[in-house]
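Entry 12.
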Amino acid sequence: MFDLSVVAVDGRWVLVDEAEGLLGHFDTQAEALMAAGDFAVADQELRHVLILDDGGEWDEAVVPPTSLH
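Predicted 3D structure (tokens):
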């Protein structure tokens, strides 16, 4: 169900795809989640993203595809 993860690493946020590996580093969690939305554009489906914060706590977010207009 989860193919993308956003993980806090040394004060930055990393977007990781289960199949592709590292997709990018971001300054904020919001930026990383926006990038996850870019990956949802291809199939126009919501993405369920796991989030691991600096404290080791897991959360999840549902990210809609980025709008093309």
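Annotation: The chain has one helix and five strands. The helical segments are 29-40.
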